């Protein structure tokens, strides 16, 4: 579904990604892990069109994405949720969801999309007039995901959905991720909480110093002594 091939990307003249390649198949959850500064968020921003790569290819179902603006990428069926969520804290839940449908062709489509979201997330229907900033951390993260769903994406790019959340809220966020994937949405998820992503991912990519360091299933990652020690903090034995 999503193909990233030999991508070099970064900021200004600073190259962060060095010939990185990965793929997300239809209906897959793919985890992207690695140390801070490895280039994980840079890869998501490059795939979504926030950053233009220095070299390499990014394609969705064979269609090139390089050179497209984020709003154009959205219209092709890709949703993006930044690490901080990007919510407007002073705006209501409803207003944030309406903004999520900005890329739809008509206001009628946008209203229908928001109604679908209320049916899927009854909590937000009950709190539609509540300021988004007054929600719990976990609820805000789920609201950010819900807003990205307004354009009915087939692929979601999620940047650290569990960041700074208490364990019970992490469980809520990942329950939502499982449910959405069960409905057929593919996902590429950057995550520092390795155990959380290994519990849901079909495959895992590890980036280190802007390069591919591992590509395989969660079981294969756990079977690799070097990767297990580096990223799970486990001993060889």
Which features does this protein show?
10 helices, six-stranded mixed sheet, about 240 residues, alpha/beta, about 40% helix, 10 strands
Account of the protein in words:
With 237 residues, the chain is an alpha/beta fold. Helix content is 38%, strand content 25%. The chain has a 6-stranded mixed β-sheet, with helices on both faces. A 4-stranded antiparallel β-sheet has the order 2-1-4-5, with helices on one face. The model has no long low-confidence stretch (mean pLDDT 92).
Describe the secondary structure blueprint for this structure.
Blueprint: E1 2-11, E2 14-24, E3 29-33, H1 40-48, E4 55-60, E5 63-64, H2 70-75, E6 78-81, H3 93-100, H4 107-120, H5 122-126, H6 137-149, E7 155-159, H7 167-182, E8 186-190, H8 194-198, E9 203-208, E10 211-216, H9 218-223, H10 225-232
Helix pairs in contact: 3-4, 3-6, 6-7
């Amino acid at each position: 579904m999503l193909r990233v091939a030999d991508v070099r990307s970064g900021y200004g003249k600073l190259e962060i990604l060095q010939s990185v390649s990965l793929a997300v198949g239809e209906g897959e959850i793919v985890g992207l892990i690695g140390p801070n500064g490895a280039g994980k968020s840079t890869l998501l921003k490059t795939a979504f069109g926030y950053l233009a790569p220095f070299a390499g290819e990014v394609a969705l179902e064979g269609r090139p994405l390089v050179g497209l603006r984020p709003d154009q990428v959205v219209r092709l069926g890709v949703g993006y949720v930044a690490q901080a969520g990007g919510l407007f804290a002073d705006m209501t839940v409803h207003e944030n969801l309406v903004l999520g449908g900005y890329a739809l062709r008509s206001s009628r489509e946008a209203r229908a999309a928001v109604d679908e979201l209320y049916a899927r997330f009854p909590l937000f229907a009950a709190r539609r007039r509540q300021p988004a900033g007054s929600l719990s951390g976990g609820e805000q993260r789920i609201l950010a995901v819900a807003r990205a769903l307004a354009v009915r994406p087939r692929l979601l790019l999620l940047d650290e959905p569990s960041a700074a959340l208490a364990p019970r809220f992490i469980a809520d966020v990942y329950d939502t991720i499982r449910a959405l994937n069960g409905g057929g949405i593919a996902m590429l998820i950057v995550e520092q909480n390795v155990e959380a992503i290994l519990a849901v991912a079909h495959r895992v990519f590890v980036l280190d110093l802007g390069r591919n360091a591992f590509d395989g299933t969660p079981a294969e990652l756990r079977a690799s002594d070097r990767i297990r020690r580096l990223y799970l903090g486990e001993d060889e034995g």
